Amino acid sequence: MVTAKQLDEQDGLRDFKNEFYMEEGQIYMDGNSLGLMSKRAEGKLLSLMDSWKNFGIDGWTEGDNPWFTLAEEMSSRIAPFVGAQANEVMVTGSITSNIHQMLSTLFQPTPERSVVLVDELNFPSDIYAVESHIRLRGLDPAMAMRKIKSRDGYTLEFEDILEQLTEDVAVVLLPSVLYRSGQLLNIREITGAAHDKGILVGFDLAHSIGAMPHHLHEDGVDFAVWCHYKYMNSGPGGTGGLYIHERHHHLLPGNAGWFGSDKAKQFDMDHHFTKAEGAGAYQIGTPNIFSMAPLLGSIEIFEAAGIENVREKSLKLTSLLRSRLVNELPELTDVTPQQDEERGGHIALSHQEAARICKALKDKGVVPDFRAPNIIRLAPVALYTSFDDVERTIEILKAIMDEELFKNYTNERNVVA
């Protein structure tokens, strides 16, 4: 049997751990909620702060990373990570604001097609956005938003998704990876099935970008949104991203704004909106330069590491974690799908004392993630988690369970879980 030490010795990504700031002795298993700061991310932020200090207003066009075209340049480098053409991606906004932009642009309800199909397990913010957008169209969310049901409360069945692709559905919005269970949906199959029924398809990639390759253009996905602060390590509240397939680029943005203008005409101050070509048209306001800056450093790391290599190691890490859990902690119910092709970058465990267990783990130096009401999420991140980290996490967790150390804590979530 191969040991964790041997796996670490064979790991081609092991040196990237030195790129990240981490407390001495800490094991960080919460990168699917907020990734760690890298030295390169810090350096890029400081560099762009210097450009403000040194150039003032001329920072828009001067320096190593002129602000005026920074989003477009970064977007072309993000595009390979999601399997898109450079003109189909834009670093902008947040997941929620980008959902509003995509729906306002692509959702054109008719008496025959007025339903937005979502799932009952999705992250609340996506649901809030869909509901409010539907209301703005004068529709009733109780009628125009339909939720795919889960059979077990953790995952979705492909057959249940297919069953809901009815003739009254205009748009489908689903997560690529379900945040509660770590289930990875089959983007290509879902997209193909929806397109066969004349339905547009979008995905929220929050829990997959930076953890695995994507093939959005090839799969024919109509639109996608994501954040960069989880596996992409861009920092808290870092600027998000959107993808819109080139076949939709002729459409005017539903929410037009100054930075969606053709760059050559943006400063003409003309009240006639001349949209940019490609995904750049779907920007709204002025880019948040300091919020974008750390992503520049993160992009460099991913370009050096290779997203395929990241996915390969991620699967090995979660496989090791799972095998140890099954053998040593059967009282924790693993709710993440078993097959590699059906899971993202984290393992989700169900236990009635989940909040208590998470608090005990954190006090023992392991940073997990709790999701109400009973989920422990453990995300070993390929760029800064070692196989030895996984082994030590299991040892600490086993001691907590065997000695019932979790009983020293209340089974209530913290304000920020």
Automatic annotation (TrEMBL):
Its EC number is 3.7.1.3. It comes from the Bacteria. Pfam families: KYNU_C. Keywords: Hydrolase, Pyridine nucleotide biosynthesis, Pyridoxal phosphate. Pathway: Cofactor biosynthesis; NAD(+) biosynthesis; quinolinate from L-kynurenine: step 2/3; Amino-acid degradation; L-kynurenine degradation; L-alanine and anthranilate from L-kynurenine: step 1/1. Its cofactor is pyridoxal 5'-phosphate. It catalyses: L-kynurenine + H2O = anthranilate + L-alanine + H(+); 3-hydroxy-L-kynurenine + H2O = 3-hydroxyanthranilate + L-alanine + H(+). GO terms for molecular function: kynureninase activity. The modification N6-(pyridoxal phosphate)lysine is found at K230. SUPFAM superfamilies: PLP-dependent transferases (SSF53383). It is an enzyme of class 3 (hydrolase). Pyridoxal 5'-phosphate binds at I95, T96, F123, P124, S125, D126, D204, H207, Y229, W258, T286. Belongs to the kynureninase family. Catalyzes the cleavage of L-kynurenine (L-Kyn) and L-3-hydroxykynurenine (L-3OHKyn) into anthranilic acid (AA) and 3-hydroxyanthranilic acid (3-OHAA), respectively. PANTHER family: KYNURENINASE. Homodimer. This is Kynureninase. The gene is kynU.
